[in-house]
Amino acid sequence: MQFHVPQFIEVENKIFGPLTFRQFVYLTGGAGLIFIFHTLFPLFITVILGAPVLTASLAFAFLKIHGKPFIEVVYNGFTYISGTKLYLWRKQTEKAAKTKKEDTTVKSKETYLPKLTENKLQELSWSLDIKENIK
Predict the structure, then answer these.
(1) In what helix (H) or strand (E) does residue 27 lie, and over which residues does it extend?
(2) Nearest 5°: phi and psi at 69?
(3) Which residues contact 60 (CB under 8 A, 6 or more apart)?
(4) Closest listed residue to residue 29, CA positions, set 60, 70, 57
(5) Which of 2, 67, 123, 133 is the most buried (most CB within 10 A)?
(6) How far apart are CA 74 and CA 67, in angstroms?
(7) Is 46 helix (H, G, I), strand (E, B) or coil?
């Protein structure tokens, strides 16, 4: 039994001539906003306000960065800027963690050693000498 596997599922259907539904919505939204600017403001203010709107609507409709639509890139940028960030310097390896633990244990033993007097030091050296001679 064979099944039909759909192909080209990432390609949107062309609904309005050569435009997809999203492209059509972005372009009509931008044109509508420029028309509202034209009815409310004089021509030079319409041009000043309409140029960024026209650029944004064209970018949203047609621009792709690394194969991703521009609206997705803008959304990811805003979520990155507004989200919390976790900064990691580097992950410790097991070997580095073990040496770090050994270093802390050595330091802790050194700090808790009592002071050796001269008599105690002589007794210790004598006992070590005796043990070496026995072996």
Answers:
(1) helix 21-40
(2) -65, 150
(3) 26, 30, 69, 70, 71
(4) 57
(5) 123
(6) 14
(7) helix
Integer Cα distance of 53 and 41 in angstroms: 15
Backbone angles phi, psi at 124, to 5 degrees: -65, -45
Neighbours of 7 (CB within 10 A): 7
Other beta carbons within 10 angstroms of residue 127's beta carbon come to: 10
Joined together, the tokens standing for residue 111 give 């700090």
The pair of structure tokens assigned to 21 is 């539904």
Report the distance separating Cα 119 and Cα 116, nearest Å: 8
Report pTM. Answer: 0.55
Tokens of 17: 């001539």
Q: Walk along the chain (135 residues) and give the pLDDT tens digit of each residue.
A: 788 887 777 777 788 788 899 999 999 999 999 999 999 999 999 999 999 999 999 999 999 999 899 999 999 999 999 998 888 776 666 666 666 666 555 555 455 556 667 777 777 777 777 766 665
And the tokens for 40?
């409310």
Alpha-carbon dihedral sign for residues 89, 94, 95, 100? positive
Residue 64, beta-bridge partner list: 69
In eight-state DSSP terms, residue 15 is E
